[in-house]
Design brief:
The protein is α+β, with helices and mostly antiparallel strands. It has a single domain, classed as YaeB-like fold, CATH 3.30.2310.20. Helix content is 35%, strand content 24%. It has helices spanning 21-37, 41-58, 104-107; strands spanning 16-19, 70-74, 80-87, 90-98. Helix 1 (21-37) packs antiparallel against helix 2. The chain is globular, with a radius of gyration of 15 Å. The two termini are 28 Å apart.
């Protein structure tokens, strides 16, 4: 690649998702927390996570990677972050966690 060149974008490609087993419990914990505060809000949280995952799947390169290759995107309506890795044409979803939580809670999943 020449100077200033980037690899071809995966924009528009449908990249497969694979979830770490812990992701389901993260999602359920967040959903329950919001549901306890306001009935129906847990479902809204889960739908927001689904929308964010669909956005990631449509264009995973849109999110920059950190030094370890982990990409993180904040949910629009909730203070939660989805953390994922991009491995060729596979997205490995590591966690969905409260944005203020200590990163060591999910870093070992990478």
């Amino acid at each position: 690649m020449g100077r200033g060149s980037r690899p071809a974008s995966r924009c528009g490609m449908r990249v497969s998702l694979r979830f770490r087993p812990e992701f389901a419990s993260d999602l359920d914990a967040g959903r329950r927390w919001y549901e306890e505060r306001s009935p129906g809000l847990g479902a809204v949280f889960a739908m927001e996570c689904s929308r964010c995952l669909a956005r990631i799947q449509r264009n995973p390169d849109w999110v920059a990677a950190d030094a370890d290759g982990v990409r993180s995107i904040r949910l629009t309506r909730f203070p939660y972050v989805i953390h994922f890795l991009l491995e060729d044409d596979l997205i490995v979803v590591l966690a969905v966690m409260f944005g203020g939580r200590d990163p060591s809670a999910w870093r070992g999943r990478a």
